[in-house]
Amino acid sequence: MKNNIDKRVEELLSKMTIEEKIGQLHQSGVSIVGAFEVSFEELINMLTDGRITPKEFEEYMSNAEEDFHEDDIRAGRISSFNGVHGAEKVNRLQKIAVEESRLGIPLLIGADIIHGCKTTFPIPLAESCSWDEKLWEKTSEIAADEASSLGIAWTFAPMIDIARDPRWGRISEGAGEDPYLVSKFAVAKVKGFQGEDVSDPNRLLACAKHFVAYGACEGGRDYNTTDMSKQRLHEVYLPPFKAAVKAGCQTIMPAFNDLNGVPCSMNNYLLKDVLRNEYKFDGMLISDANAIHECVIHGAVENRKEAALKSLSAGLDMDMTSNCYIENVKKLTENGDLSIEDLDTAVKNVLRVKFRKGLFDNPYITDSNREKETVSNAKFRPLAKESALNSIVLLKNDGILPLKRDMKIGVVGNLADDKWETIGAWAIMADGDNCISVLEGIKNYKNDVSYEKCIEKDKINEEEVDKICSENDIIIAVVGEGRDMTGEASSKADITMPKVQQDLVKSILNRGKRVIIVLMNGRPLDLSWEDKNVNAIVEAWQLGTEMGNAVSDVLFGEFNPCGKLTTTFPYNVGQCPIYYNHPSTGRPAGKSKFTSKYLDMPVEPLYPFGYGLSYTTFKYNDLRAVFNNSGDLEVSIKVKNTGNMDGNEVVQVYVQDMVASRVRPVKELKSFKKVFIKSGEEMDISFLIKNDDLGYYNEEMNYITEKGTFKVFVGGSSKEVLDTEVEL
Ligand code: BGC
Questions:
Q1: How far does the centroid of ligand 1 lie from the alpha carbon of residue 289, in Å?
Q2: Alpha helices (H) in 428-525, listed in sequence order
Q3: Closest ligand 1 atom, CA of 256?
Q4: Which residues, listed in sequence order, are joined to residue 263 by a DSSP beta bridge?
């Protein structure tokens, strides 16, 4: 099969003109003509930065005429589109490419299918809190099914950037701060999108992004510079990409940022040494939108021509919509700056992926019937609900939860009654009208709850607050950040609750009511005030299509919450970046003044990594750890459900290498299992951690596992753990 594809690639390449070769490296956007003349990307930018609402976006799209540059397709000048969808439209364009272009090379249609397509699943940060690999895989399989029925063959996902700073708005798009967990997430997502057989027309090619260290942007400001040691790069930021490549991920997108002074789009070390030579990646690289051009703005090259030269020579195969390749590569080969070998390598990488995807043999992956049958099919809703339920994290509960059906309950907040707010920042194809708002979900369970919005144009409507408080004893305040406050280009320096949202909670507390906060948001917030003052906090994120029903099941105890945080919630923004697996300092925080801490703030976070409450309690005991003859670490523990409700628990194993030739983190997640334990029952749980997984990069950048003492911690969060020491 492999040889066969290589042969077909070589044969095709030998027939191509230089223009056709360059065409294969060009991804086009769609121009929108009519409503106003902007590219599809610009329209998406307008949507993501809040200049237009999702509804306006849909309107523009349905009224505007799109220009697909059909003559360019016919002439072989376009390899791929970003964002085109709809079976009929895609097949029409594909027909031009396959039947009317000289060589009949099929188009590769890509789109951002991040957490669902029309049916929307929880935002990735939320979904990661389920710690459930099967679920992660299943939701991307269904997203792939829906998206491919619309003619899409390739998704720009999974986003597997490690994020340790909640100021960064794109923290919502990834799976949190831990390299081990994000690697598991990466593998599950690649499998779910691509399936066993990459050529399956019901699946999508995956694209691991953003390569790499995009989440380490200074100050948590999107697109900002990053600078770090090679050890940190390879121990923290690269592992998810290594895992994705190993899982067969077919495409990778370099990040916008520069790393140690070189933009990732033209970074030889990253794209060649690490990706191609070390990881043996044999798929295709696609730039981020306009990123090749932005090398000029970085000041890393003189002009667009040099940007094209440096990026292509570094191994960046396809240009996403900057037009730098299509405008310059011919000249670069003519004057000898770029070798034909380098050009051919890139073209072969693109063609190989198109062959693997099966597009040469089956260019029409869908039709209108399949689209009609698949899109928003009600059969996907149970999975949307299951993923939403498992993503919810109970952060605080003074005993008020679960609620009882006969209680008098009021619901407040503008977010409560908004279907579109459930879909999160990066769900451009989502159908908000098809989503269940939190209020609807609660009403589906108990239809006599009262609702008042209580917020009008960023002001509290005191009359409405009076009304709802006079009728009810318990108020569910659905508060948080709107979906436009996270995602791309949505960094924030203040991560407390938006003022009006917090004011609403205050005005209810002032009237002596008990308050349960249902949080809707896409980043960890500073909840130090809320934690002190309200009765319960349910972290519900943005959970997609079935959000309301899932939240209501948790509130009323129909489902026992089991989500665990995959990212640290700071006590205050001044602690950022903050993460549990930080290296040991020589002066850990202690009583003495001269230790590593703040004068005005705790050094601990508000809620640590791995944390999340349940309606039951779990007791851990009998921790054992031993190295076996192969040097692998065997760990076992007994976990008992000591409360009154059956429940899931995420049992987490952390390890610390106590003495090493480079300073090691205070603890690192090395394994986990999510288990269902009935009330009163006890379970024996065991783990095997490979010797190789206990290593690190030494000063010479050799990966080693050193002999010595290791501390093993097991528990239901990174803080509440039993520990023991063991010798290797
Ligand atoms: C984002 C990418 C996305 C691309 C294509 C960019 O702005 O950074 O994550 O895949 O747009 O839509």
A1: 6
A2: 438-445, 462-471, 499-509
A3: 8
A4: 258
**C-alpha 225 – ligand 1 centre gap (Å):** 18
Query: Which three-class secondary structure state does DSSP give residue 152?
Result: coil
Percent of the chain with pLDDT over 70: 98
36 has a pLDDT exceeding 60: no
Residue 449's contacts (CB-CB under 8 Å, 6 or more residues apart) are 409, 410, 411, 442, 443
Classify 292 as helix, strand or coil. helix
What residues line ligand 1, using a CB cutoff of 6 Å? 44, 82, 112, 156, 209, 288-289, 488
Look at residue 495 in the predicted model and tell me its pLDDT. 98
Dihedral sign for Cα 692, 197, 128, 160, please.
positive
Measured from the Cα of 209, ligand 1's closest atom is 9
Query: Which two three-digit tokens encode residue 378?
Result: 């009600």
| Reported confidence tier of residue 215, pLDDT bands at 50, 70, 90 | very high
Gap between the Cα atoms of 631 and 208, Å rounded:
32
Phi, psi of 322 (to 5 degrees): -90, -15
Which residue's CA lies nearest to atom 7 of ligand 1? 289
pLDDT at residue 52, rounded to an integer: 81
End-to-end CA distance of the chain: 44
Tens-place pLDDT, residues 67-120: 889 999 999 999 999 989 999 999 999 999 999 999 999 999 999 999 999 999
What are phi and psi for residue 95, nearest 5 degrees? -65, -40
CB 181 within 8 A of CB 192: no
635, containing H or E segment: strand 633-641
The answer to whether the CB of 422 falls within 8 A of the CB of 545 is yes
Backbone angles phi, psi at 67, to 5 degrees: -105, 115
3-state SS assignment for residue 72: helix
Q: Which residues are registered as beta bridge partners of 252?
A: 208, 285
Nearest CA to ligand 1 atom 6: 289
C-alpha 365 to ligand 1 mean position (Å):
24
Instruction: Give tens-digit pLDDT for 200-213.
Output: 999 999 999 999 99
Between the alpha carbon of residue 495 and those of residues 213, 522, 651, the distances in Å are 22, 11, 30
CA–centroid distance, residue 82 to ligand 1 (Å):
10
Distance 355 CA to ligand 1 centre (A): 24
Q: How confident is residue 331, by pLDDT bands cut at 50, 70 and 90?
A: very high
Closest residue by Cα to atom 11, ligand 1, is 289
> Smallest Cα–Cα separation from 294: which of 286, 303, 285?
303
Rounded CA separation 145/492 (Å)? 35
For tokens 């950022």, the residue is 576
Helix, strand or coil, per DSSP, at residue 88? helix
User: What would you report as the CA-atom Rg of the chain, rounded to the nearest whole angstrom?
Assistant: 26
CA-proximal residue: ligand 1, atom 2 (nearest): 288
pLDDT surpassing 60 at residue 35: no
- 528-535 LR contacts (CB < 8 Å, sep 24+): 528/571, 528/572, 528/606, 529/496, 529/497, 529/502, 530/497, 530/502, 530/505, 531/395, 531/396, 531/606, 533/505, 533/509, 534/396, 534/477, 534/505, 534/509, 535/396, 535/397, 535/398, 535/400
Q: State both tokens at 9.
A: 């690639």
List alpha helices for 315-423, DSSP H. Answer: 324-334, 340-356, 368-374, 381-391
pLDDT per position as a tens digit, 505-561: 999 999 999 999 999 999 999 999 999 999 999 999 999 999 999 999 999 999 999
CA atoms lying within 13 Å on the CB side of residue 579: 22
- From the CA of 156, give the closest atom in ligand 1: 10
pLDDT bucket at 34, cuts 50 / 70 / 90: low
Task: Identify the burial level of 389 via C-beta atoms within 10 angstroms of its C-beta, where 0-12 means exposed, 13-18 middle and 19 or more buried.
Answer: buried
- Active site positions, annotated: 288
139/157 Cα distance (integer angstroms):
13
> pLDDT tier at 724 (50, 70, 90 boundaries)?
very high
